[in-house]
Specification:
mainly alpha; 109 residues
Amino acid sequence: LFLAGTIPELMTFAGRNFDILAGLTAPLVVSLGWRPAFRRNLLLVWNVLSLALLLNIVIHALLAAPFPLQQLAFDQPNIAVLYFPFSWLPTYVVPVVLFCHLAALRKLY
């Protein structure tokens, strides 16, 4: 999307988008989460860090969008989410991910 000119570089891995780390580490966390010694603390820490990564990219996406509150990426704003199928990201994917992390944290307490 960056190469197509629809998102700024700060929303890529070269920029400030590291939320893919949550998805890449999920299989490892699940395999270690079955062990009682690691379970609760590991899952709590991983969910909190994953929420922080999600919050990071959501804030950057909002601040880079071509709306009155735009503060970042004036030369190449975040316009990808205005077009299908990328409009699914803020309207479905992000809320589902947020809900799943919050549900997991609720279950761990």
